[in-house]
Design goal:
- By secondary structure, this protein is an alpha/beta fold.
- The protein is 26% helix and 22% strand.
- The strands form 5 sheets. The protein has a 6-stranded parallel β-sheet with strand order 8-7-6-5-4-12. Strands 13-14-15-20-17-18 form a 6-stranded antiparallel β-sheet, with no helix packed on it.
- Strand 1 and strand 2 form a beta hairpin.
Length: 430
Amino acid sequence: MEKKFWEYGALRVSENKKYLQNGDRPFFWMGDTAWLLFQKCSLQEAKVYLENRKAKQFNVIQATLVHMVMENQVVRTDFDSEDYWKHCDAIVSMAEELGLYMGLLPAWGSLVKEKYITDENVEKYADFLAERYGNRPNVIWLLGGDIRGTDGLEIYKKLGNRLKEKTVNQLVGFHPFGRTSSSLWFHEEPWLDFNMFQSGHRRYDQVSLGEWDDNNGKEGWFGEDNWKYVNRDHSYAVMKPTVDGEPSYEWIPQGLHDAKEPFWQAADVRRYAYWSVFQGAMGHTYGDNAIMQFYNTPEVPGSYGVKEVWTDALHHEGSCQMSHLVSLMTSVDFQKGKPEEGLLVGGQKEKYHRISVFAGSEYVLCYAYLGEEFMLNLKQYEGKKLYASWFDPASGVYSPLGEIAAKEQSFKPIQKYSNGNDWVLRIDIR
């Protein structure tokens, strides 16, 4: 029988402070965004969802315990909605049985902004959560919920400190507002085990949409270049792992607010995944518009122009293709790898023309989103045998090139005519 992750040891930060591991076993985070899982799904529906994600090598399910104040979902000091909490318990147990971590978000950020969670009741809520889930082997805490740290700074510090005190074997992170990172407010907090950024849903040209979620200039603007958040989070004197906890969702409008805009597709979600992981992120979180809201009423419009019910969206190709990234990264010693764009002859290119390079002592991985030709200088590997293959992120299939010389040389993938034209060049060094 397959061992569960935590059977190798409690989840912890790696020695180089860039990744996570269970005991001495590397853990590659592959998350899915299931914010309304507890509120919208029956136990049978939750089982269908969780089994689907397990089959695709997802291992962290990000879900909100309390998303809004409504019947059977109350954030108060008496916590009297026992039927609802038993429902949450059952889903967490179901995930545990499947070997899945639950990235539990205590309450969506709006509940802090609207003063349902306050300085006065936040520690009592933390105690309630710790008593209920503090001994679960498959729980990771994600504070926040699409909110700036400044909108609840002292509340989140109290919540983080209390959870870390009461749940010493569980990691704590923070899911931030769009196009920001937890590092902007909490990087030096002792309770924050890893950073999470939300690269968001906007195109390069959608700097300002005149919407409520426009960013302040001081927070930085990276457009679709989610790899730049990794660079920023890794620039601090004290290193912590980081992950894109909310990139553009599959089948959500570009820019989020206008359903007349094009929708993000599978090739786009692959690009976000490979760009951030090849820059040194500890893994990646995928999202789907219908799944994150568990849309199930086609006769009633959902949010963000959602087109399909979640039971159909379960099978979207982007979700299937995340397992190829997991298989690729876990086939190498990824925790000892690092970005190596210095291998590119002629330097790095910008935006979609970027060639992401990630390398360890026994491998080089290059991701070309547009499938354009690029040149590598491999002279440093003279005296070793180099074996190259093209890896298709859409199908997970390798196409070997055979042994190659340790010299400057060009690589040009063949043209694909569907599912985008992205490729990974893999070079094994022996």
